[in-house]
Write a structure and sequence with these properties.
alpha+beta, ribonucleoside-diphosphate reductase, DNA synthesis, nucleotide-binding
């Protein structure tokens, strides 16, 4: 289980597992529940690099980041530190 503290978004934490370079069991603490449940289901079983590629750089309103972008950051950090 890996926990990532977010910055600049409503969700405070992202928690996930990685198995064989695949994203598993993503959950967000806080944020827009329905949207984040959808994001978590969509990335389930996807390769880390594919998720980073698809979600990196997504913004939310006037913010220069978003919960999906923060998930990409979390996965990138995990990959760099494993």
């Amino acid at each position: 289980m890996y926990t990532f503290e977010t910055t600049g978004v409503c969700a405070k934490k992202i928690i996930f597992d990685i198995e064989d370079n695949k994203v598993k069991n993503v959950s967000f603490e806080g944020g827009c529940s329905g949207n984040l449940q959808g994001v978590a289901k969509l990335v389930e079983g996807m390769d880390i690099n594919e998720v980073v590629h698809k979600l990196k750089g997504i913004s939310c309103g006037q913010k220069n980041t978003s919960c999906p972008d923060q998930l990409a950051n979390a996965l990138k950090e995990f990959s760099e530190n494993k």
